[in-house]
Amino acid sequence: MTKQIRLRSLLKQDEIYRQWFMKPAVITIFHSSAPWRLYVQAEESGPWARGDTRSYAKAYTGVKLRLPDAHDMAIHSKAQRFRPPVIKVAGRRMYSPMPEGHDWCELCRRPTVFKRFRKHAAIGFVDPEELRCTICGIRKEALTKYPRSAMSWPAK
Ligand SMILES: [Zn+2]
């Protein structure tokens, strides 16, 4: 089973993702509740804490503050889906490659490991046959299937 890459390593090793993550994300679907959820896993294999916020900048500041200590994190979008970063290679646009064993979660806005759960911390008891995002619990089936990049991760 693939060990999920930590946000810290992702930002350090994947320059394309780092730049994409640093750019303030724009929400175009409006709801009455806060659109952003900061997920923080303080320790490896520990529980994921979460806090909701109205602004991406606030969530981003939360990430920056916790980056040295927290085991893993995500700035999750509660309703609006985001595509992976796009790169241009030899004049062609393609999705940025993911680390091995990871898939893009359109809500966690990062590569995550999808696994089978009986009980998922974020949503409770679930169908154990379905693959779900480790962080937010969304079903893999419910997400857009992006073509695998021909490039290996991280793209340079
Ligand atoms: Zn997710």
Count of helical segments?
3
The distinct ligands, each listed once, are: zinc ion
Helix vs. strand class:
alpha+beta
Question: How is the largest sheet built, in terms of strand order?
Answer: 2-1-3
Quick summary:
Helices cover 17% and strands 27% of the residues. The protein has a three-stranded antiparallel sheet, with helices on one face. A two-stranded antiparallel sheet has the order 4-5. The longest helix is centred in the middle third of the chain and has 11 residues.
Commentary on this structure:
By secondary structure, the chain is an alpha+beta fold. It has a domain of 95 residues. 17% of the residues lie in helices and 27% in strands. The protein contains three helices and eleven strands, in the order H-H-E-E-H-E-E-E-E-E-E-E-E-E. Strands 2-1-3 form a three-stranded antiparallel β-sheet, with helices on one face. Strand 4 and strand 5 form a beta hairpin. The mean pLDDT is 94. The structure holds zinc ion (ZN). The site of zinc ion has 8 residues, from loops.
Give a topology summary:
Elements: H1 7-13, H2 15-22, E1 36-41, E2 48-53, H3 56-66, E3 72-77, E4 86-89, E5 92-95, E6 103-105, E7 110-112, E8 114-116, E9 119-120, E10 124-125, E11 131-133
Antiparallel strand pairs: 1-2, 1-3, 4-5, 6-7, 8-11, 9-10
Helix pairs in contact: 1-2
Overview features:
binds zinc ion, alpha+beta, 11 strands, 156 residues, 17% helix, three-stranded antiparallel β-sheet, two-stranded antiparallel ribbon, 3 helices, globular
